[in-house]
Automatic annotation (TrEMBL):
PANTHER family: DOMAIN SIGNALLING PROTEIN, PUTATIVE (AFU_ORTHOLOGUE AFUA_5G11310)-RELATED. Residues 252-290 are annotated as: Disordered. The chain crosses the membrane at residues 12-34, 46-70, 82-104, 111-130, 142-164, 171-193, 213-236. Residues 10-199 form the MHYT domain. Keywords: Membrane, Transmembrane, Transmembrane helix. The keyword Transmembrane helix applies. The keyword Membrane applies. The lineage of its organism: Bacteria, Bacillati, Actinomycetota, Actinomycetes, Kitasatosporales. This is MHYT domain-containing protein. InterPro entries: MHYT_dom. PROSITE patterns: MHYT (PS50924). It comes from the Bacteria. Residues 262-290 have a biased composition (Basic residues). Signal peptide: none annotated.
């Protein structure tokens, strides 16, 4: 029996809140990634890890806020907690791999493509693993073509966001990138939901059960608290807001070609002046009379 699926049972409330969560996580993650390119090597892993956790938590929160509005008529929906939190771990780890690649290799060429691909696959894996955590009296089936489109959207969104983070152009640039990233992640989510069909088994009598909001709300407390703490870190770091390097040497930034760095050192070497010899030790060129 075909189940009637409703992804907007609360109207536009859940899509808008989900979009804001994706934008918040994206903005914090991109600023942390940008900040990692403005500091010394010893501080870079910490900022990249914070950015990875922010992006992963943001897209995970976005997904399950949107799922609060997802209902199937005729069967209650429950969620497996272990698999739900496993989807959060997958999102953070795979996003982290992509962010670290761009943070150390630069947001260009092969590094950008590899990092964006891994990050996009992490977003898609989080989505479909989160869908697999649903427990209902039915079977979930997906349209293969639509699923492929949703994965492509996730990969393109992740690549564009990482490219924007590598430009280091300031706060407004990252805000615009986070808005685009939030729109793309939300689009990926609802494209994936459009690929879903639910076939009910009809073996259990329909019951009211708990609403998805009541089941998911306690799970969202931790990631939401983390995003708020990460937001506090951003607000109280001037370089995070301005996006301008202080006194970071050029050779410490990722993505700078080797010949450029060597050219800087050589030019600095050529600008050195030779010290003058003491006057008393200078040799006179006038021939001495013997």
């Amino acid at each position: 029996m075909q189940g009637t699926v409703d992804g907007f049972s609360y109207g536009l409330v859940t899509p808008l809140v989900a979009y804001l969560m994706a934008c918040l996580g994206g903005a914090l993650g991109l600023r942390c990634t940008t900040r990692s390119m403005l500091v010394a090597q010893s501080w870079r892993p910490g900022w990249l890890a914070l950015g990875s956790a922010a992006i992963g938590s943001g897209i995970w929160t976005m997904h399950f806020v949107a799922m609060m509005g997802f209902t199937v008529r005729g069967t209650p929906i429950h969620y497996d907690k272990a698999m739900t939190f496993a989807s959060l771990a997958v999102a953070i780890v795979m996003v982290g791999i992509g962010v670290f690649i761009v943070g150390y290799k630069g947001a260009r060429g092969t590094a950008l493509f590899t990092g964006g691909t891994i990050t996009g696959l992490g977003i898609a894996s989080m989505h479909y693993l989160g869908m697999a955590s649903m427990r209902l009296d039915g079977k979930l089936e997906y349209d293969t073509v639509t699923v492929g489109i949703s994965v492509a959207i996730a990969m393109c969104a992740a690549t564009a966001a990482l490219w924007a983070a590598g430009q280091v152009r300031g706060f407004l640039w990252s805000v615009g990138a986070s808005l685009v990233m939030g729109l793309a992640v939300s689009g990926m989510h609802y494209t994936g939901m459009a690929a879903l069909d639910v076939h009910l088994h009809g073996t259990a009598a329909p019951t009211s059960g708990e609403s998805p909001a009541a089941l998911l709300a306690p799970m969202l407390i931790g990631p939401l608290a983390f995003l708020l703490l990460a937001g506090v870190v951003v607000m109280f770091d001037p370089l995070m807001v301005m996006g301008k390097p202080a006194t970071v040497p050029l050779e410490q930034k990722p993505g700078i070609p080797a010949h450029t760095r060597s050219g800087v050192r050589h030019s600095a070497h050529r600008l050195r002046f030779r010290p003058r010899r003491p006057v008393g030790h200078s040799r006179s060129r006038t021939p001495q009379k013997r």
